[in-house]
Structures are given as C-alpha cells and as structure tokens.
Amino acid sequence: MRRLAPILALAGLLAATGNAAAERLTVALSTPEVRIDSNFTGVPITIFGVIERDAQTVSRGGEYEVAILVLGPPETVVARRKDRVLGVWANSDSETFLAAPSFYVVNATGALDDLAAEPLLKRFRLGFDNLGFRYDGRDAEDDPAAAEFREAFLRIKEKAGLYSAHVGGVGFIGDTIFRTTVWIPANVPVGAYQVGVYLFADGAVLARTDESFSIAKTGFEQFMFTFSREDSFIYGVMCVALALFTGWLAGVIFRRD
Amino acid sequence: MLIYLPIAELSVNMFIIFGMGGAVGFLSGLFGVGGGFLLTPLLIFSGIPPVVSVATVASQIVASSASGALSYWRRNMIDMKLATVLVISGIIGSSIGVFVFDALRRMGQLDLIVSLAYVTFLGLVGGLMLAESIRAIINARRGRPAPLRRPGQHNWVHGLPFKMRFKRSKLYVSAIPIVVLGTGIGFLGTLLGIGGGFIMVPALIYLLRVPTNVVIGTSLIQIIGTMSVATILHAMASQAVDFVLAVILMVGGVIGAQFGARIGQNLRGDHLRALLAFLIIAVAVRFLVGLVVSPDERFSLTLLLGGGL
Q1: pLDDT in tens, A21-31
Q2: Residue B184 lies in a domain
Q3: Is residue B305 domain-resident?
C-alpha cells in the first residue's frame, strides 16, 4: 500500500488537472437507427459535436482539429485476382481479409498527417494506411506480400461507396461546434456501427468520444431475410408455390383456347 | 422507381427489372422456350450477383413453364409417364448441380465455369439450330419438301436395354437415354440458371423420336419439376433466392410471354428457329467476350463471413 501511494497520488493529480484543463466532447447523431425498407436508396447521417471548455481550460496556440471515424461491422472477405489462363481470364491468387471493417469513413478538418503523428493515427485506425489489415495465414499486420490485394480491396470498397476519406469533411460552425455528414449507401451491410470522434490540437489528442448507431432491415425486408436464413427449406417451398400460383394465374387470365 | 432487394442486398430500378422479365418473356413466348438462358445473363450483366441471378431465375422459370404447361394439359398434350421419368432423373441431376454450384462458389470459380458452360452449350446448340434452320429455309426456297421422319425410323438409341413403354408417345424405348437426358439437363439447368427446354426439345424429337405434339408439354413438366427442386435446393444451400426479385421477374415474364406467343403464331417455324439460333449464339459470344477481353478490374471481393450476415 505504501508503494502504491505515490502512484495513486499522481493518478489523482492527473485526473484533477485532466478535468480542469482538457476539453470535453459532446456528440450527437442525426439518426440513431437507420431502417432499411423497400424504397431504401441510402441516407445521410449528420454527426454534430460541441467542444466544451471552461474557465480553467488552458488556452491553445494551435487551432482545434477534428477527425470523425465511422466503422461498420467487421467482415471476412476474400479478394481474388484474375489471371490469363489458357487464353481466358480466371481467378487465381487470393487473399482472405480477417475482420476488416465492412464500412469505413474518416472525415477530418484537415489532412490526417497534419493532425497527428503516425503512431497515434494507427492506434485510432485513422486513414486507409492505418487500418492494420490482417490476412488469413499471415501473422504480420499489413503484410507487404499482400499489398496488391490490399490496394484492390480499398479500390473496390471506395468504388462501392463503402470506404471514403474526406479531408475537409468536418466543418466548424463557430469556434467550438463542428459537424460532418456521412452518406450511407443502399448496399450498406446491416449491423452495429461505431462512431469515433477525436479532437486534436498541436499533434496531440485532447479528447475522444465514442458513439454508435445501428443499421437494420425492417418490416417485410427483415422478415424475408430472416425467413430465408432460418427456415430456408420452407422459404424455398414458398417461392416455388408462388411461382406455380403466378403461372397458373397467368394461364387462367390469358386463356386462349 | 428503386426497390430494395432483401436477399441481394442492393436496390434496383423496378421498371428495368420488370422490363427485362417482360422482354425475355416476350421472346420465350415467341420461340416457345423458357428464356432462362437469356434472363440469367441479363441479370448478371446488370449487376445482380451471379449466385442470386441463377437461384432466382430458377423460380421464375417455374412460373413461366407452369403458365405454358397449363394449356398443354388442357389439350392432353403431355406424356405423364415420360415426364415422370424425366422429372425423377432431373431431380438427381439438380441435386448434383446444387452441390457442384456451391463447391464452385466456395472455390471462387463459379463465374468462370458458368461462363465456359454458356459459351460451350449455347454455342453448340445455337450453331446446330442455325445450320438446321438455314437448310430448311433453303429447301423451302427451292420448293423441295422438308425430309420427313417416319415413326418407324430407328437409330442407335433404340437398341439399348431396359426398355419402357410410353403409351401416350407411342414409344417403346430404353430408359437409359431418358435418364441420362433428364439428369444432364437437370444438372446444367441448376448450374446455369436455365430450364434447358432448348436442349430437351430437340433431344426428345431427334434422339428418342417422341411425337412433336407431346414434346413441348412433356418438356415443360420436366422443367417445372426440376426447377422447383432446384429453387428449394438453392434456397437451402446458397440462400440466394430473392423473393422480391422473383416476383418482379415472374409478373413481367408471364405478361411478356402472352404477347410473344401471339406474334409467334404469325411467323414461320424455320424463320423463328433461325432467329432463336442467332439469339443463342449472341449470348454465347457475349460470354466469350467476357472471358477473353482483359477486365477493367482484375480483382473481386467475396464476402465469406460477417457484414450483412
């Protein structure tokens, strides 16, 4: 207990100064739950934040910088490369990505490299280069042997609108209020989404806060999806019954003989 | 109007899909074929994942074949015994087909094999059909009558053992070629998302000498049986049958087929067959181009786990 005392005292002091000196972040989302229904074609989510300061907060020389990260549920994806085999293009090499974010958006007030040094960006997974992909059968994160597949993964995800990085995507309204808008496309995977908001100044993280929202199918879409997964035999029989009925109905309506 | 497909997990323009179903239905009514060999590629080329396209078209084929079979049923133009043998063997082929389909999908070679099979079978059938119809057109121009096939004519198929009697078709033939035919077409149909009527009908006529008046009705029953099983097996194995997509395609298809059938009655048989042959060859060439031309994007992503699941 005696050896712990100075550490506890230090921790207490840090906590106290932390409370007094650091900024606090309050964040709100425009939509806590995205519902996918039959006419879902994508939706924007706006993230608002307020930097709270009080009289004791130290004044800073540099400006505030904010980075906002949105992460979709992890997925295991295989990337395949086509090569010419006997004159035709066929899948040959592949690389399996383990627990890669299915959706990834990072918006910031400025270029990420200007916000903080690389180790910090890596820790918070800010930026495509700092995602730390893991591959099946490879121990090292971001193994350079898989670089080609990594680039292809990012390219395809970006093209599908599921990955994006937008410098200047976070804007300040006044000195302490900021906001960003993230477009959720129609092909978005369902599940729990994490939002991380990071406040930087002079290359250091002053505050961070986490939020979350969910994307779920609703009503008929949810029912059909669950039905097809859980009672796949009955679902199949139902599809056949519908087909026979449609065919029979058409045969009766358009009867010519 | 955009509509979200719950299984394919993307939104599509409902009218475009409806139009595709209608156009393919029109052609299938015109030529008297199922049209799966046109619809599946159209869906794939328009961005629906191949797995969903093949599995969903299987159910659409059931609908379009059922509406056709009804009128043959009313006119008693179906050999039920022959159809039963074909359906049973078709179910065996279909089961093997779903198994191979799923294995290829896991290996990442489904698209390649589907493309190669389309090029091979459509190229072959289209080529044969074109040659035959051109010969018929030339004969008609020169005023020569088409060579008649007498019912008594026999070929090597009729020398095989395990003979069965089919009263409606007035046939006494070996069960072997029937089972092979049913299994083969069930397998191909499940793998490629086609009914296989355009292979089945000529095979029944030329190989087994089934009378032409019962051929189409019997073939339709075989397609309904095989594709029903294929739909259920696809729903269980790959879980890729999209109900919403299927409904749009079915409604478009059965309406289009009615108009096609009316126009088809005013066209000559050999001309129709030549047109159909061109269409089949065009689809084969489109797949060949896809295989040979350097792709814009050499990489592809396939979801194994998580995300939408």
Answers
A1: 578 899 999 98
A2: yes
A3: no
Q: Which of A11-15, A128-132, A153-157, B107-111 is the most confident on average? A: A153-157
Sign of CA dihedral A239, A245, A248, A253: negative
Using CA coordinates, name the residue in chain B closest to A40: B4
Question: CB under 8 Å to B138, separation ≥6 — which residues?
Answer: none
Query: What is the count of structural domains for chain B?
Result: 1
Kindly identify which residue of chain B lies nearest to residue A99, measuring between CA atoms: B306
Question: For residue B220, is it within any domain?
Answer: yes
Q: Rounded to an integer, what distance in angstroms lies between the CA atom of residue B31 and that of residue A247?
A: 18
Contacts of B111 in chain A (CB under 8 A): 91
Q: How many residue contacts between A and B have a Cβ separation below 8 Å? A: 215
- Residue A62 near chain B (CB below 8 Å): no
Nearest chain B CA: its distance from A141 CA (Å): 19
Q: Which of A39, A40, A152 lies nearest to residue B299, judging by beta carbons?
A: A152
Q: Which residues of A touch B261 (CB under 8 A)?
A: 256
Q: Are strands A74-85 and A88-101 parallel, antiparallel or unpaired?
A: antiparallel
Which alpha helices (DSSP H) does chain A contain, by range? 4-21, 112-115, 118-123, 147-159, 219-230, 232-253
Q: Which residue of B has its CA nearest to A148?
A: B299
Residue B76 lies in a domain: yes
d(CA B179, CA B193): 20
Do residues B22 and B253 touch, judged by C-beta distance below 8 A?
yes
**Token pair 């997974």: residue:** A125
Read off the amino acid at residue A20.
A
B267-272 long-range Cβ contacts below 8 angstroms, 24+ apart: B267/B30, B269/B136, B270/B133, B270/B136, B270/B137, B270/B140, B271/B133, B271/B137, B272/B30, B272/B31
| Cβ–Cβ gap A78/B304 under 8 Å | yes
For residue B153, with 0-12 CB atoms within 10 Å meaning exposed, 13-18 middle and 19 or more buried, which class applies? exposed
- Asked if residue A12 has pLDDT above 50, the reply is no
ipTM entry: 0.85
- Please name the residue of chain A whose CA is at the shortest distance from the CA of residue B230: A236
Q: Which domain holds residue B89?
A: 2-143+154-292
CA–CA dist B164, B89 (Å, integer): 15
CB A247 within 8 Å of CB B258: no
What confidence tier does B133 reach under pLDDT thresholds 50, 70, 90? confident
Give the pLDDT score at B69.
84
Task: Quickly count: other Cβ atoms within 10 Å of residue A114's Cβ.
Answer: 12
Q: Does A59 touch chain B (CB under 8 A)?
A: no
**How close A109 comes to chain B (CA, Å)?**
29
- Predicted structure pTM score: 0.80
CA pair distance B155, A102, nearest whole angstrom: 60
